Amino acid sequence: MSTAINYTTAAEAVKLIMSGDHIYIQGSTSVPEVLSDALAERGSELRDVTIYCGFSVARREAPYCRPEYKDSFLVNSFFVSNNVRRWIAEGYGSMTPRFLGEVPALFRDGTWPIDVAVLNCSLPDEDGYVSFGVSGDVATSASQCARTVIAQINPQMPYSYGDARIHVSKIAAAVAVDDPLVEVPTATPTDADIRIGNAIAERIPDGATLQIGVGGIPNAVLRALDGHKHLGLHTEALTDGVLPLIRSGVIDNSQKKVLPGKTVASLALGSRGLYDYMDGNPDLEFKDVAWTNDPFIIAQNPKVVSINSCLEIDLTGQVCADSIGSRIYSGVGGQHDFVYGSSRSEGGLSFLAMQASTSKGVSKIKPMLTPGAGVVTTRFQTQFVATEYGCVELRGRDLAERARLMISVAAPEAREELERAAAERFGYSFLRLKA
User: Fold this and answer.
1) How high is the pLDDT of residue 435?
2) What is the pLDDT of residue 271?
3) Which domain holds residue 320?
4) If you average pLDDT over every residue of the chain, what do you get?
5) All residues at 6 or more sequence positions from 305 whose CB lies less than 8 Å from its CB, including other chains
6) Which of 33, 90, 236, 393 is catalytic?
7) What one-character DSSP code corresponds to residue 370?
8) Residue 98, domain member (yes or no)
9) What average pLDDT does this structure show over 8-14?
């Protein structure tokens, strides 16, 4: 295969996109901004271009999300990210509900036709392969299924091993850029986060395989694990928070059954230091999200521990993690996949964590979910729930017992109202638990 790259300008590259095409634009912290801008410049001459997009942390709103382009670019997102959130909220774009691990199947079985994949890639290696770097997730399947691949070739993109690669001979048009990736600051845990993190960490056994999310609570959990031994990592998102544990040997991946000795992820969100750590690191494997998030692959590892955040939980353990009432705020991501995968793992545990109240003092533990809220994890799957007031296990508990446990980790000022709601809903089966 030829290792020559067909370089051109961004304006020329996006001429390969035609009216009526279905295109995928890469996400994570690697949105191809130069190509996105060039595509938006063609807005007046294109019609009915469907743009598939997913989880992204972008510098700004997508340039094609403008009222004058409402018939040019039809945004269909499977995760509502910051660059398209307003556009979708205003009704111009749309969102397709789908577990992130199942999105690649939409491309592969033809449910979603895909004509063009627009990527942000590393410099090529000596064999002519470029890497998607921080974003193996859906970019892998999109690039495999698209008839045309357009790519930014970017020295700022780390070279990661695994599925997140493509040979330059399969790139129809490439644009040389030197465009820094978005950096996601490490969230500093609050006192409440630290209490939650400590409560979760003390329940994690040595030798566990971790899936851990992003934010203050996950970072608090990671900080509390420095005394553990032989932890593994098989996760959707890789963050800066794991680096101290990898460097100290706490995470050594020695007890994993799936890719032992390797840290496994599908995407990365973090600092330049994290991206530099990833670059050419053979101890890391970045995989197709259909593989990392497959519950049956996850479950092959022993002692899988999944730790995910949520927006609100009702008294029975129904978890909302994607919407604020009827407004879709984000997406499902891998929460369901890892909750289910951990439940099938020998010795597996799953934690749903949140602060008990919003910044305005509104309880996140509800008698019932807010009307319109989406159920991401059902009451049948919820195991541990953690707030700054404790960590309770719902598994094996009836509805009245669950209500009592959920009230015990609610904010104190919300408990009286929750008690009344539980008594009205569950009657004597709840009231007798007060004794």
Assistant:
1) 55
2) 94
3) 191-434
4) 93
5) 204, 208, 209, 210, 211, 342, 348, 349, 350, 351
6) 236
7) P
8) yes
9) 97
